[in-house]
């Protein structure tokens, strides 16, 4: 996260559009309220770093349905929601994630 933050900070103004996505495996984040609950101290620290990073760069997490079991693990952040047209969480044969 620090390396990404360093790179983004070198870009200057106007702030760049950021898109960041992947399997973050942080089921301890409640995305509706942006709260961290449960988990180990290390997991809570990682979750807080991600939330602080998203807040600093005005990133909005756009996945609202579970992507593995009852958890939202696969995340899609952007600083410009106008880039998004349609987000679907669908089953796949390639993974146990949606």
Description:
This protein has 98 residues and is of the alpha+beta class. The chain has one domain. Helices cover 24% and strands 16% of the residues. The protein is built from two helices and five strands; from the N terminus they run αβββαββ. The protein has helices at 2-9, 41-56, and strands at 19-23, 29-30, 35-36, 60-61, 74-78. The chain has a three-stranded antiparallel beta sheet, with no helix packed on it. It has a two-stranded antiparallel sheet with strand order 2-3. The model has no long low-confidence stretch (mean pLDDT 85). This is Endonuclease/exonuclease/phosphatase domain-containing protein. It comes from Petrolisthes cinctipes (Flat porcelain crab). It holds the Pfam family Exo_endo_phos_2. Residues 2-98 form the Endonuclease/exonuclease/phosphatase domain. GO terms for molecular function: catalytic activity.
């Amino acid at each position: 996260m620090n390396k990404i933050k360093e790179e983004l900070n070198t870009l200057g103004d106007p702030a760049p559009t950021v898109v960041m996505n992947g399997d973050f495996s942080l089921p301890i984040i409640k995305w509706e309220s942006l709260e961290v609950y449960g988990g180990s101290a290390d997991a809570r620290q990682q979750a807080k770093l991600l939330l602080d990073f998203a807040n600093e760069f005005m990133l909005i997490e756009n996945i609202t349905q579970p992507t593995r079991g009852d958890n939202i693990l696969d995340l899609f952040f952007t600083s410009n929601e106008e880039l998004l047209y349609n987000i679907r969480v669908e089953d796949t044969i390639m993974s146990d994630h949606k």
